Amino acid sequence: MHMIRPAGRAMEIKHATRDVVPIAKEVEKSGKKVLYLNIGDPMVYDYRTPEHIWKAIEDNKQKSEGYTDALGTIGARSAVADYAKRMGVNGVTSDDVITFVGGSEAIIVSLQALMDRGENCLIPNPGYSIFSGELSFLECPPNEYYLDEENGWQPDASQIEKQINPKTKAIVVINPNNPTGAVFSKTTLKRIIDVAGSHNIVVFADETYDQLLLDDDPFTPMASIANDVPVVSTGSISKNYLAPGFRGGWIYRHDPQGILGEYFEAIKKICRLRLSTVAPVQFAMEAALNGPQGHLAPLREKLRRRRDLTFRRLNEIEGLSCVKPKGAFYAYPQINFPLQSDREFVISLVRKKGVLCVYGEGFGQKPGTHHFRIVFLPPEQILGEAFDKIEEFIKENYLAKK
């Protein structure tokens, strides 16, 4: 028999955050310690899922033993609708909510239901690689808009508008942003909404980190300021509620003119192919959104301290500069010395010093610039050790060559 050939579109999928891990595992096999600063998983470090979320699963064991509604239980969907209302979004009911196996599946299915081959969706650069990866799988050409590093990584609505063409179906906005940690201003978001409205396209608002704001910058849900523009908002319990392994995510639609009906039904049809949601997680989502929120303030304070350390240390290292992250738990420093590729930089760093980050090529960046993403979830001691090693690595391998 001949080798079985996979679909060509599947071979083009890339996910930088995961693609670097096998290299780190090789390094560990050689006996070297690796500091993992690549994946936004709080549970690897000193964080725990709030106990009432676990209790909700324990208390609903019997209800979790059979199939659930493929769109999510009424309890979980109502909890998301109530959450949207508390965030300032009016008019969302349980009928406007669908739950998923994490926010990632929500993004994938939402794109699958909208995009035909050859169409395009505006995505931020830099941005979360699941959007570019899924669009590549769907054979949809990239259509990227740059975030402005000199303006705190804010998007430019006028540049977004210039990128729109007859095959553009949506604008993706990731706020708070992964990988930069930027929090977008209400003025900026309103301008993007106006652009979407004038071109009759939908807004995808990935608002996964909406509770993880580290300064006084207010968070503005896009649906709360979109009076006549359709918005599909994505969220999950992974980050805000410290439960990434639970895989509890959702979308809700804000559809003031009733123009998302056929599209939303297409999403439902895809969801029905999976027969059921993951039943225990439905109760966990309901408990997370409706239950005590007391973990959030200490969580933000912990992240704030680690953000401050990260921001200070990165900017103290010769050859690096970093915009201060305002939300989430990522920093995206720029490399300011001659370099062939930041992928090569990151791979060499983990091999020589045992510090694993993610290369900027995996998230996007303006031509001629180089970056890497750092997760500042670990305790200060681990972060300090990592920054010492990064500084040593740069001095030994790049600055010494001046």
From TrEMBL:
Its required cofactor(s), as named, are: pyridoxal 5'-phosphate
One GO MF term attached to the UniProt entry: transaminase activity
Q: Which keywords does the record carry?
A: Aminotransferase, Pyridoxal phosphate, Transferase
> What region holds the Aminotransferase class I/classII large domain?
33-382
Q: Give GO terms for biological process.
A: amino acid metabolic process
Q: Does this UniProt record's set of keywords contain Transmembrane?
A: no
Q: What is this protein called?
A: Aminotransferase class I/II-fold pyridoxal phosphate-dependent enzyme
Q: Which organism is it from?
A: Candidatus Iainarchaeum sp
